[in-house]
Predict the 3D structure of the following.
Amino acid sequence: MKNGAEPSLAALSVTLVEFRPQRRLQSITAAVLINYALADTELAGRVRFSVIRPLLNEEAWETCLTQIVSLKPDLLGFSCYVWGITHACRMARRIKELCPEVKIVFGGPEISGRGANALLSYPEADYAAISDEGEETFRQLLRHLIFAEPSLDHIPGLAWHGLDARIKTTKPGAFIDLATSPSSVMGADMVPESDLALLESSRGCSFGCKFCDWGLTKMRYVPLEKLDREFRDLAPRVSGITMCDADIFMNQRRGLEIINLFLAASQGTDCCLGLNTNPAFLNKSIVNALAQDPKKFNLALGVQTTDPTVLKIIGRVFNREKVEANLQYLKEKAPSLPFFIQLIYGLPGQDWKSATASIEWSLLQVQPQGVIHYRALVLPGAELGGLAQQYGVHYQQKPPYRVLKTDTLSAEDLNLLNRLAFYQWLLSGFPAFSGPFSDLWERTHQPTWPQERRRVDILLELIEFIELTTGVSAALGIDDLSAIENETALEKITALLIKNRPLQAAVVYALRYFRSREEAHPALSTGLPR
């Protein structure tokens, strides 16, 4: 019912849907919304929640549809991220056909990034939570549906279809108090089957990266005492915790305290803490703390690009000397601690030389499986969209908004970088493939290796050889290589590359190929057994 006056209900059945691109990936949204709503004592006994977390494939989609219909919710909520918004729209349309009385609310980054235009973009929903934080909007919407108060025009950060069929909106409300808000940890019954929990210790970001829709917002922090309780609750019953913060080491003193809290809370468990950080923040005190138990951590280090011109355009800083010193200290003090360097390709002002130079620098810092490339996205609400015309950035107008070409990177360049990103992902995810390359990679770091011989060129040459030998890229297609974050694509790729084993055979062929060049180029010898 798309109007501003809704009947009150004695009780409310609410189903929340979170589409997941991979089994081990999940959203923190449902836990946060449910706990916050149930802290309202008048709602606690009158709202029944259920949560569905389908993967992005047809079988999961059909199962999710069946579940929703069987649950017969009064309110159906979708947490909308770039990877799931298309599925959410399709599901909403189908539910409206089968159960027209169900109210549907959209929220999440894909919605808040559009602000008042959210329902214009996604008219399938009855309501849209357009604030950057949705807890209070959601709580008051539940109160409206049950008690008929507050009225819709008094709910902060809400968009809805008015009685006159025009879209109405309210201004976002104040940020919630993280000190007094309920925990984002739901308890044992709400930990998803992936055995991986998400946790936040802060909200906001002081960075101004133009490819992100999150930055330059006020920093707010969860009290350390509260975070300590959450660590102690989670560590014995999950295999991993991933921090959702922009970067816990922006505040290095607090970040160090968080590391020590986790080490104490996770004693006697195998729980691992995943962190995203800028490697410039890894000072000696932080590294020494991580080195106390390196197996307890994994780091994703956001570099994005090493090109000064591109960095200036996208609003980032890269101090090469400081970062290299920090990484060297990390490798010396905690050699067994896994870390990955993250890069973005397709940024404005970036050309082939710039993109591959960033890759080459990263490969010199880590093994080839330690570099992860992401194609640039032009997200709604991010400043990058305002630079598109100036730098000739052409991108998909619908999710996932991938950059297709720029004035300095052709579509062919991006496709080759895309294939390189795919094979790097393959090396990081499948030891059967990464193992045979390890000895070859050792050779590239020896003094006898020709200085003019770039490591990125070796990988590109291997890719070309593998694809010619096996036909892998023709069988998969560029779309599949672009969508390695998608579980359906992962399953297809795994079936082709593992079950049919063409790439494993190609590894052998590739090493033979390099050995065949030894007579002409002794310095290129892999040193591998024949």
About this structure: Residues 155 and 491 are 43 Å apart (CA to CA). The radius of gyration is 25 Å. The first strand starts at residue 12 and ends at 18. Residues 1-5, 517-530 have pLDDT under 50 and may be disordered.
